[in-house]
Amino acid sequence: MQFAKFVKLRKEKFGSVVFDTLKEKVYVTNESAGEILNLIKQGKAKEEITSFLKECYQCEGETIEKEVSEFLGELENSKIVE
Amino acid sequence: MKVKEVSLLEQDVTPSSVDIEDLSSPLFIAWQINSLCNLDCLHCCEEAGHKMPNELTKDEALDLCRQIVEMDIPYAAISGGEPLLCPYFFDAAKVITDNGISLKVETNGHFIDEKTADKFKEFGFRSVQISIDGVTPKTHETMRIKGDWQQSIDAVKRLVKRGINTEIVFVPTKFNLKETSQMIDLAASLGAYGFYTGKIMRIGRAAKNWDKLAPSEKDYEDFFKVLQKKEEEYKGQMKVYYYPYDVVEELKYRMYNPSASLLIIPNGKVKLIGPLPYLCGDLRKHSLKEIWQRYKQAWKREDVLEFTEKVIKDNTLLAQSNTWIELDI
To answer: What pTM value is reported for the model?
Structure first.
């Protein structure tokens, strides 16, 4: 999983700004979504992202898996990642 | 973990859900790298043509590029004048693109020969925008004095052939409005990635030639109907992008929702926004980081907001947009 060409990520105090500069669309996220985006930027796969977050937040596996899947689905639908 | 989408205006970044106070730096830099131009267009907002006194030197321009990189600004556009007449255009573009920043180049296309098109491909620009204002040389060259329609068309072909995202920009006027539909078809047949248009802005030379150029409201109604139809027709094939508001409507919105962008003119001064005369910084006196803070402060000033209100009430004041006023911030 990686960002589409010309998609840029920047960390801000409130979370992250994702800028699809080709489509000229800006997306803003909160901090937790920003963490996932940062992991994508590092080239991590979905499973790696999920296990990293499970460790960080010490939440139930299913909850994290569901949230990550939904979020990644949104990113794919918006063509932010490919 | 929801992501929130916010559409942008062409060349004008607008994260309306984010207060610019919350952003560490701009999201977009519009940089007029030079004022020299080989054309003398009737509708040029920048009144380009001759070199501006005190334009940035190559060293100063490259320093600006490094500041753009340091501030992690994701997207920049270089225009002019005609940017390919700037002797350090490629040096500046290299610093920007080598550091992963998306770069759009806005040109009349006259200097994009085979060799330059190869170089453009190497640089990996986000896109190249070429201005074409008619389906025939006559229409295009009536508006773009000294322009050569065929050269611009050939430039599009060379870029498209190399797989470069090529966008055609079309400014509607009394001369060409009736060609809009054919113009979009032409852009699609050339393989353009996008077709960009919107109401002509009453600034610069366009303000001086307003009576000659400005379409009527009825003309605009027809124009937008054509655009809607064509947007649907070319869905999935070519992006037909149009901004439906004029400069005054834009100002009404901007005075309370400033864009997360900076507009840098060739002498290194930074304009608050194209249609207003105010300058909020000078790269020879301030760092880009300082200018971003000054920009945010400038939009809160009473004198700026009062003058903006006046312009909204009397749009002939837009003609003063290139008579710069330096704000004492």
So the answer is: 0.93
